[in-house]
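Run log // design_07
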């Protein structure tokens, strides 16, 4: 590749688009930059207004820090405007999309995209999330604890764990009925701890009335579980968080319920059998599910324990999201004022054989949520490629396993999170290269408008995955590299509770990633705490990590480097999993920088480098290392 091609860059931020959220009828100025000495004769912006091809000539408008900016005016006449660039030298035409530079005409799914009616939840790109599994975080009120034998579910009695530091029971031992007493009062009491860490937003696993410790088997969407403190505890928590400048999103499954849910109520265990669909064929709730005449019903993944909700019912739509007193609206309103929803199993929501309603319902759900809170965050569980939902009218972000967690864990040698569940594929070792990592990240981000790239919820640990650091093959250095990686990506990093405390866990099971928070430790003395504390502070201090563009400067073998840049704030992260010391070429000038600042990086590590040419340096990376440095201009 011609070396000057490494400098080509544009994105959808205000650095490269004069108004990233334009109105129909406006014209916006679009910019593309490259090395000032690049042998480029002509540049055209190629768009398709009303379906017809238009090539708009661009002109050299200005130079700054060795880069030239080509610009043109782009009329906005549709709700969605997409474009890419033709870059012509004396003897070749190059084509530039969000995904790559080619010498052949590209397909359009990786085009740059501007949206006229998308309202970005602007706070997300500045946020650091902290995910909490409420039952295992902190017991703020022992008086509301589940007592031993208080109730049973599916024949398994509630178990009260005597000591907070006891090891959680395996599924075979406890069946998700082992309780420690974590509650919302406990979370509220730990707000000073979370603020000191640098957290700005909480994502809570389900908190609604439910028998299990995980609460995904909800009984009633309209009430917080009394063992978590009830509705008032949520109002108090939300108020306290907002007083401290922190956001709150809640978790819910609206694809299916359990058989004990008030709307279904098969066995009459928690509600009288006069309520619910199963025992009352003429009830309103009967239409909420897929029943046959013989009273059999459709269950999610054909599981009888999880009856699927039937959104052909207008009454169900009214109850879940449309009505003023609907489930989703209730918790967005006073006195709860939550800041968004995380939707469980969103990838399969309303997709039932011949009845495919997902792309009809998600825009309706989005509109309903935004009527209550225009800045509410709509976060969806999807572990794979979900670009179809990330075009501005449905989700703001998935749980970004696909472009973050699955990528970085595979880079460090784990089988892919989906592959490890397969009896054959799990036995084949992962050999992901840095080139693979770059392609995985880029193909995910390039499928969506830039405004949605900035919303990405970047995680590598959660309640659904073994904790990365409990893998015996993962070193502290590997963990540090993964943590830096999630802070380098556009969007918001998410810390899973206890990772910063080097919490114990059992690799390979869900129960093994849900240990009680180890408050008896000196958590702030833990290296992982100090790492996350520093990364959170850097996220706050450096607009490049929130507003800035992102560009891979290097990705070969076992080493990659990512630049984040916003105006004069230019940061570069270098991550190596190599067993050997590596020297890598970093074209800092492509990001607008010259040389690394100082003799230590922003994490306090010594750095070693030497100049190579006018555009680049040679950076020396130690084995299994990660660095983050700021560039001199």
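design_07 sequence
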């Amino acid at each position: 590749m011609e070396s000057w091609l490494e400098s080509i860059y544009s994105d959808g931020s205000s650095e490269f688009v004069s108004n990233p959220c334009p109105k129909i009828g406006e014209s916006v100025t679009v910019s593309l930059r490259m090395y000032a000495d690049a042998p480029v004769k002509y540049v055209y912006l190629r768009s398709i207004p009303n379906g017809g091809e238009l090539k708009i000539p661009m002109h050299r408008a200005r130079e700054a820090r060795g880069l030239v900016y080509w610009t043109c005016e782009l009329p906005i006449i549709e709700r969605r405007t997409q474009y890419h660039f033709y870059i012509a030298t004396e003897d070749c035409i190059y084509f530039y999309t969000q995904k790559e530079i080619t010498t052949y005409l590209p397909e359009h799914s990786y085009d740059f995209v501007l949206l006229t009616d998308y309202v970005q939840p602007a706070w997300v790109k500045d946020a650091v999330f902290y995910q909490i599994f409420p039952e295992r975080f902190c017991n703020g009120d022992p008086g509301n604890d589940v007592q031993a034998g208080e109730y049973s579910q599916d024949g398994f009695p509630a178990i009260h764990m005597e000591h907070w530091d006891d090891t959680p029971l395996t599924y075979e031992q406890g069946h998700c009925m082992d309780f420690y007493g974590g509650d919302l009062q406990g979370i509220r009491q730990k707000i000073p701890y979370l603020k000191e860490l640098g957290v700005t937003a909480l994502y809570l696993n389900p908190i609604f009335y439910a028998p299990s410790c995980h609460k995904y088997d909800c009984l009633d969407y309209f009430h917080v579980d009394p063992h978590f403190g009830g509705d008032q505890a949520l109002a108090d928590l939300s108020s306290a968080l907002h007083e401290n400048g922190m956001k709150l999103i809640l978790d819910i499954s609206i694809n299916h319920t359990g058989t004990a849910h008030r709307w279904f109520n098969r066995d009459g265990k928690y509600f009288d059998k006069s309520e619910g669909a199963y025992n009352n064929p003429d009830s309103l709730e009967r239409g909420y599910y897929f029943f046959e005449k013989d009273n059999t019903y459709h269950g999610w993944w054909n599981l009888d324990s999880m009856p699927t909700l039937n959104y052909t019912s207008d009454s169900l739509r009214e109850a879940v999201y449309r009505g003023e007193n609907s489930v989703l609206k209730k918790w967005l309103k006073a006195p709860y004022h939550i800041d968004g929803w995380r939707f469980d199993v969103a990838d399969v929501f309303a997709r039932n054989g011949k009845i495919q309603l997902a792309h009809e319902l998600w825009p309706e759900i989005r509109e309903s949520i935004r009527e209550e809170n225009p800045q509410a965050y709509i976060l969806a569980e999807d572990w794979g490629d979900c670009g179809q939902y990330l075009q501005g009218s449905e989700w703001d972000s998935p749980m970004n396993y696909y472009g973050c967690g699955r990528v970085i864990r595979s880079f460090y040698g784990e089988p892919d999170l989906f592959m490890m569940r397969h009896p054959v594929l799990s036995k084949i070792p992962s050999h992901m290269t840095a080139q693979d990592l770059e392609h995985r990240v880029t193909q995910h981000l390039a499928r969506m408008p830039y405004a949605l790239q900035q919303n990405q919820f970047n995680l590598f640990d959660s309640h659904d995955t073994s904790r990365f650091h409990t893998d015996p093959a993962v070193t502290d250095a590997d963990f540090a590299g993964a943590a830096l990686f999630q802070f380098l990506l556009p969007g918001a990093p998410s810390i899973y509770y206890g990772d910063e405390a080097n919490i114990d866990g059992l690799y390979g099971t869900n129960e093994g990633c849900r240990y009680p928070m180890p408050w008896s430790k000196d958590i702030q003395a833990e290296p992982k705490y100090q790492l996350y504390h520093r990364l959170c502070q850097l996220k706050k201090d450096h607009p490049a990590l929130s507003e800035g563009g992102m560009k891979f400067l290097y990705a070969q073998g076992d080493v990659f480097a990512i630049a984040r840049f916003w105006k004069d704030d230019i940061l570069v992260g270098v991550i190596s999993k190599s067993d050997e010391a590596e020297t890598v070429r970093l074209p800092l000038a492509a990001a607008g920088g010259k040389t690394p600042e100082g003799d230590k990086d922003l994490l306090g590590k010594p750095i070693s480098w030497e100049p190579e040419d006018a555009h680049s340096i040679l950076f020396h990376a130690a084995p299994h290392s990660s660095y983050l440095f700021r560039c001199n201009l």
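The mean pLDDT is 97.
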